[in-house]
Amino acid sequence: MPTLTFPHLLSAGRIGNLELRNRIFMCPMGSNLGEPDGACGDRIQSYFEARARGGTALVTVGSVSIGWPVGSGNAPNVAISEDRFIPGIAELANRVHSHGGKVALQLQHAGANAVNDIIAGRPMLVPSEPEPSESDMGSYLTKDEQTRIATPHQQEGARVAYREATRDDIQNVVRLFADAAARASRAGIDAVEIHGGHGYLISTFISPYRNRRTDEYGGSVENRSRLLVEVIEAIKDRVGADFPVWCRLDATEFFVDGGTRIEGARRTAQLAAEAGADAIHVSAHADPARAVGVTEGHATHTPCHFVDFAKTIKKAVAIPVIVPGRIEPEVGDKLIRDGDVDFISMGRKLIAEPELANKLGSGQVEAVRPCIYCYVCISSIFFRDRIRCAVNREAGREFEYAIVPTKEPKKIAVVGGGPAGMEFARVATLRGHTVTLFEREQNLGGTAVFASYAYEPNGRLVRYLANEMQSLDVDVRLGTAATPAELTRLAPDEIVVATGARREIPPIPGANQDHVFSGDELRTLITQDDNISEVRQKLSWSQRTMMGAGAIIGATSDAKRVRQLSRLWMPIGKRVVIVGGGLVGLELAEFLAARSRDVTILEEGANLGAEFAIVRRFRAMHELEKLGVRSLPSTSVLEIEENAVRTQHPDRGVELVRADNVILAVGTVPNSTLHESLLEAGTAAHLIGDAGGIGYLDGAIGEASELARRL
Ligand SMILES: Cc1cc2nc3c(=O)[nH]c(=O)nc-3n(C[C@H](O)[C@H](O)[C@H](O)COP(=O)(O)O)c2cc1C
What we know:
Layout: E1 13-15, E2 18-20, E3 24-29, H1 42-53, E4 58-65, H2 86-97, E5 102-108, H3 115-120, E6 124-126, H4 143-154, E7 162-164, H5 167-186, E8 191-196, H6 201-206, H7 221-224, H8 226-239, E9 245-254, H9 262-275, E10 279-286, H10 293-296, H11 307-316, E11 321-323, H12 329-337, E12 343-346, H13 348-352, H14 356-361, H15 376-382, E13 411-415, H16 419-431, E14 434-439, H17 447-454, H18 456-471, E15 475-478, H19 484-490, E16 494-497, E17 501-503, E18 516-518, H20 519-527, H21 532-536, H22 541-548, H23 559-565, E19 575-579, H24 583-593, E20 598-602, H25 614-626, E21 630-632, E22 636-640, E23 644-649, E24 653-658, E25 661-664, E26 668-670, H26 673-680, E27 686-687, H27 696-710
Parallel strand pairs: 3-4, 3-12, 4-5, 5-8, 6-7, 8-9, 9-10, 10-11, 11-12, 13-14, 13-16, 14-15, 16-27, 18-25, 19-20, 19-25, 20-21
Antiparallel strand pairs: 1-2, 17-26, 22-23, 23-24
The protein binds flavin mononucleotide.
Flavin mononucleotide is lined by residues 27-30, 62-63, 106, 195, 197-198, 248, 283, 298-300, 324-326, 346-349, 377-378, 381, 387.
């Protein structure tokens, strides 16, 4: 394969007078890494410094409060509302500059999303009193999650109230933005971005749905954009025309009838440019009452979701245009080459891989740790926790969590080549230990490989980790089961067991029939792996003939091929019932429904997908609903019959759900057999990942990374 280069993405660029070493920006992302009093401390400085060290042209501190605590969103975000915040911000600027990077602050007034106003019982500033709306989020959340999300609203004195901005309020807001920009400039910050999107104050003025004013700030797009224009002008007046200022704008408001649309956004962008804005950062918003809003709007699930909007805006203005939204480097390179946009802002990719730009520049594309779009990052923000990343345990902890060389190099045996085993081997090797990794299959990746058939980003993580094994020269022994005898021969100083999970057939009457498959059997069927002969017994004559004729996939663990070919044929009937609505059940349901199967998920508990981070769960449920999957929570299985599953629900009673095939996505238990036998033989061993307790990728990577740093 030819080495990928990114000549356009990595070429120098400029916004106004600001020179940028390449076209990769780090999106503004609220991280909750600020200090509790709004200060910019070592934790958040280290987080951004790591991305600057990694070659990012410009990092943006998201949602910096201009009036803290008034009009501010989340408790531990950074503030710039008083001079006392300047030293921390100046230190951040120094640390970013020391690596040749640039830094912007995204200035924010949270308006109708000012959680700190709710907590304090202050009314939130809005252009017009909002229409009441009912959120659908509750139906996807567990009781505990609902309580955690609602906590600020339940504190003593908290209340949700609004205040329609008077002219004085508006002037005050304009002054706060200008003061904030002046402080940023004094602190040595390179630019400011005005947050004009995502339902915060300025975007509610711009939105024709949220702004119903009849004064000069309401009505026409010019009037609705007036607050933004005044803010830009005031900043330019205060800090001088040379200080770069740009704004983030919603190109559209998804699911909002009568909301912002691209035609209006295009005009707002022109007005911003006329007022002196040096660039436009394109984004989108979606009705926040819709659980899927976050992944349809700014933290989009759809690759390149905002690119067409950005192209439209680029044609309407003469200033640079910045675009985010799941843009892969090769796509970004092409967009810049073709003059469609000027800069690519990357969010989740840079949380997962701070060294992204440097790695692209040095031709180490395979060494880029991928974001798996599991939404652990943004789900943490929902709970007001500090940001964290499922694949990069260092994210948000850079100040305390570096990989430090060991003083006592050891010989370590790792059993199991799934994500937990590989992440352990990676970190331990980097620390200077010598690792031998045993994997009984012929491929690395474990269950994550199967998970990648249903959810492609998981496969990227497996490839990244497998590539790390190779480049770090880890002694990987494929097709080798690490028996206690084998381990004794190796005589390691430490043994780490990462043998993953195994799936037990649950004691459901009828579960042993031929049309009932376990998750493992389904995998065998669609990949035709080594265990195929056993599962083939369960197929009909015609299904076996199809498989024999090679019409099915052909033995492969290439996820892309499996995904493509399984669209043509699978030995699975039209009506499928999946027993178990956990993470595995939901991913399988999406895989099968996308292949024209009528899928029903039966889940005994009250919630589906409880193991997913909440934002990923919202998205998964949305995708399933779109595909017509029927989800039946609180439904237990009484018996699997020949063509149906007999179920019981507390209200609906006993019901039959028709099924040609039944897939059992329950009964996943830790596979700790080896660990137990080692302990019985008096050999100490560490247990990580699903082998110690089912925690999926997030848990596996987390435990592996912690242990490798400790040993
Ligand atoms: C954890 C998280 C926090 C975010 N916070 C902000 C924010 O404070 N301000 C903002 O304008 N956008 C915010 N966003 C949206 C991002 O700036 C960006 O639009 C989004 O992540 C899409 O880019 P990506 O696909 O490269 O991640 C946030 C996104 C994430 C994932």
